[in-house]
Amino acid sequence: MPPQAIFLIDMSLGYLASGLCIAVYVWPWLKTMDGAEAQRVIATFHSFRFFGLVFLLPGFVGPHLPQGFAMPAAYGDIATGLLAILALLTVRIRPLFWLLVFAFNVVGFGDLIIDTANASRLGLPDVAGELGAAYAIPMLYVPALFWTHIVAFALMLRSARKPAAAATA
Q: Where do runs of H (alpha helix) occur along the chain?
């Protein structure tokens, strides 16, 4: 089977499996929580995005991993991870916490969209072996990150609707 096919099958199944897991186990659990507590759970998961810096680590990834993919992916991940950590550190200062929750979700979701576009544009599936041990990131971690951003946005919209619904009742 060609590497491109393996890459696309793995990535598609990663999104499907993560989506199913989050829909069945994570979403029902998070939506029963207070909004800030649910966002803390999501921010904790995203605080590990510093790991994306491995795309720049020689020996961990191959020397021919396209830098047009590796650099934006690494720096987008570290920016998102730092914003998530800052959100966790400011949970007691609610206006700042909510600003940072919004920021890490917008930056992180945008990073995933940009990285996916760059991967496609630069032919990453053709050189999937250059990902080395980092192959697990786009197959397992990225789909879970993607879906948790969707959940975070859904929870923000849900909490924004609650006061409006209470005001009209």
A: 3-21, 27-30, 35-46, 67-89, 94-121, 136, 142-168
Cα(145)–Cα(129) distance, integer angstroms: 22
pLDDT per residue over 122-145, tens digit each?
999 999 999 999 999 999 999 999
Per-residue tokens: 101: 């929750």
Cβ 74 vs Cβ 52: under 8 Å: yes
pTM above 0.70, yes or no: yes
Integer Cα distance of 136 and 61 in angstroms = 12
Whole-angstrom distance, CA of residue 19 vs CA of residue 143: 8
